[in-house]
Design brief:
The chain contains 2 helices and 5 strands. A hairpin with a 6-residue loop joins β1 and β2. The chain has a single domain (about 10-95), classed as Golgi alpha-mannosidase II (Immunoglobulin-like, Sandwich). The longest helix has 5 residues, at about 20-25. It is mostly beta strands. It is about 10% helix and about 30% strand. It is globular, with a radius of gyration of 15 Å.
């Protein structure tokens, strides 16, 4: 049997390339630090912001973040509304820093 592997970047082209510098070099801000169900942070670099959300609970949660409609989905399933997260779901969103 021959095992064929693909580099991770081939599997997820939307989050690789010129924008990956935001992941490695962008500033980091933890958001919602007091909500035990959600791990959320924003990375910023230049005029770009990325919001990373993870629901670490078995319930549907709506993160209490202003400007929910200004985020564009980069990775994950489209939310039912706003930034609603299904149980155990994770997503990455982006927007321009001026939003």
């Amino acid at each position: 049997m021959t095992l064929v592997t693909r580099p991770y970047s081939a599997a997820v082209p939307a989050v690789t390339g010129p924008m990956e510098a935001i992941v490695t070099d962008g500033s980091f801000e933890l958001v919602l630090p007091h909500d035990p169900r959600i791990y959320a942070y924003v990375r910023r670099l230049g005029g770009e912001e990325w919001l990373v959300l993870g629901n670490f609970s078995g319930e549907v949660v709506e993160p209490d973040l202003p400007g929910a409609s200004s985020w564009e989905l980069v990775l994950g399933d489209p939310p039912a509304s706003g930034l609603t997260l299904q149980p155990w779901e994770g997503r990455v969103h982006r927007r321009s820093a001026s939003a």
